[in-house]
Design a protein that fits this description.
The protein is of the alpha/beta class and 185 residues long. It has a domain of 116 residues: Glutaredoxin, CATH 3.40.30.10. It is 43% helix and 20% strand. It contains 7 helices and 9 strands, in the order αβαβααβββββαββαα. The protein is globular, with a radius of gyration of 20 Å. 20% of the residues are buried.
Amino acid sequence: MKFILPLFLLLGNFSLVSQSINWVTWEEAKVLNEVEPRKVFVDVYTEWCGWCKKMESTTFSHPKVVEYLNEHYYAVKFDAEFKEDIELNGKTYSFVDGGKKGYHELAKEILRGQMSYPTIVFLDENFLMIQPIKGFQDAKTFNQIIHYFGENYHKRTPWQKFTQIFNATQLLNQEQVMPVKVKGN
């Protein structure tokens, strides 16, 4: 009996670990991508950004979001004020000291000069820009966004049409799980 409780707690911790995004560094994403090409999702944040922390604690902990990101993307958490050099696609990016505040050149490039946090950035399997999206995203919206880019709908379907189809599909899936009441029974 003494061993059951610690084992239970240990197994419980594994389930919590599996419910988080598998964040990797830029270097790890490059190595992993050589073995299994995937799109790259980048969370560009700063330590002082309140909305970044809220997105981390809500959106990035939602089970559907975690599951989809871990299966379809390499997720990079990138501090826009990171001080070390990063090499990507044959170019070296460095920190630019701005006195009180600075920025990383790679952050400026993938944010297209719009230094706003949080910003989520989607890159293709070759680390080329698909699209940055500024601002806090709730779990429902973010789930739509990751499917839109993850399954290449962005190449063939306008966003408005995709969200209509996606929402209808999600509703149908929920109805299949829930029993339907039929009048007269």
